[in-house]
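ok here's RNA-binding protein KhpA, seq below lol
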Amino acid sequence: MKELVQVIAKSLVDNPSEVHVNEVQGEQSVVLELRVAPEDMGKVIGKQGKVAKAIRTVVKAASLNVDKKIVVEILDDKS
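and the structure came out like this:
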């Protein structure tokens, strides 16, 4: 899932080298922290959060055969 989010995000932003995905494992869930440059936040979130919602939908569909819940958090690089 980490690689999937990374590929999607890198294709959306102007600074693909600033895209970092950190995977945090929990007992019942996995949190994918997507970090992008501050100037690319708008491109990853989209108008009214539509791009962010689409990313989460794709990850949810790709993770159907995984027993854990996958959560995608979008953070700027300074967080």
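fwiw The chain has a mean pLDDT of 92. kinda neat tbh
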